[in-house]
Design brief:
13 helices, binds (3S,4R)-3-hydroxy-2-oxopiperidin-4-yl beta-D-xylopyranoside
Length: 312
């Protein structure tokens, strides 16, 4: 994938990964190839359960494996994530905390993560909204209302002034209630000078389901003074096996997403939520669905791969 030949701009193409997959040499050889991927996001090891398994005890070894790999290979690293309702450690999931206690816990967690991994992009806030645009009820919102959001962003900024700070979510890729709510939040944060640099559009799509307003929506986020990124792209079939027409549609969909990012100067790049079905999260989370990645589980490139190339 020679991006330089395809485009004057250099979007990155990246992928999520878990280092347990790296002893699969076919997998690892594709992952490390800088002609394929210029960016990596740890799929799990920088999440709260993995980085603060006991209250106030921070463990960075597993995350460091991925950070060291990106350093050695010259790839960009995306920190994922500081605050999310899922994959929390038991002590946080089952504990009861007053608002001041949880405010301290959130700031300490964000500060320590972003401080440890200097100079990177961070999904500071992940999945804060419901699909109707209201805030998600979780331990953070229920205890702190929306104040946990600026709190996490301030702590991240204090930990590393060079880090780009993002809010990341799904179903905000097209214009609608959820992206409208996020735009209102961004305006509010900006008006209060809360540090916020970007919006991550997860982009877990179904074949044929890329929102037609994707590019316009990204432009609207950029107009608020942000950069944007496609952070977790996969495009799944809801029924298997795919037909040839389905594979052609999937190829067109991958191209549409990459081309939309390419058309928006402040869209910095596209990250796949792993590049092969062998390690995709889709079959485990959406039973009966899948074939969502550009590489099959046997590392054969689907038409989708060509779609990505054409989108660049
Ligand atoms: C997923 C991982 O891929 C799985 O391995 C894990 O079991 C659950 O989380 N949105 C996100 C990602 O922001 O962190 C999620 O990753 C997929 C949905």
């Amino acid at each position: 994938l020679n991006l330089a030949a395809k485009s004057a701009r250099k979007l990155y193409l990246g992928t999520a990964t878990n280092s347990e997959q790296w002893n699969d040499t076919t997998y690892f050889n594709i992952l490390k190839n800088n002609a394929e991927f210029g960016q990596v996001t740890p799929a799990n090891v920088m999440k709260w359960f993995a980085t603060e398994p006991e209250e106030g005890v921070f463990t960075f070894q597993d995350g460091d494996i991925i950070a060291d790999f990106t350093k050695k290979t010259g790839k960009l690293l995306r920190g994922h994530n500081c605050v999310w309702h899922n994959q929390l450690p038991d002590w946080l999931e089952t504990g009861t905390f007053s608002a001041p206690e949880l405010a301290f816990i959130v700031s300490r967690h964000c500060f320590n993560l972003v401080n440890h991994y200097q100079g990177h992009v961070w999904d500071v806030i992940n999945e804060a909204f419901n699909d109707d645009g209201t805030f998600r009820s979780d331990i953070f919102f229920d205890t702190l209302n929306t104040t946990y959001i600026p709190l996490a962003l301030y702590a991240a900024r204090a930990a590393d002034p060079k880090a780009k700070l993002y809010i990341n979510d799904f179903n905000i890729e097209g214009i609608g209630a959820k992206s409208d709510a996020l735009k209102s939040l961004i305006k509010e944060l900006k008006s209060q000078n809360v540090p916020i640099d970007g919006v991550g559009l997860q982009s877990h799509f179904e074949v044929g389901g890329v929102p037609p307003t994707l590019q316009q929506n990204m432009e609207e986020f950029v107009a608020l003074g942000l950069e944007v990124a496609i952070t977790e792209l996969d495009i799944r079939f809801t029924a298997l096996p795919p037909t040839p027409a389905g594979l052609a549609q999937q190829k067109a969909d991958y191209e549409t997403v990459v081309a939309a990012c390419n058309a928006v100067p402040k869209c910095v790049g596209v990250t796949l939520w792993d590049f092969t079905d062998k390690y995709s999260w889709i079959p485990g989370t959406f039973p009966g669905q899948g074939d969502a990645c550009p590489w099959t589980d046997e590392f054969v490139k689907r038409p989708a791969y060509e779609g990505i190339i054409e989108g660049f």
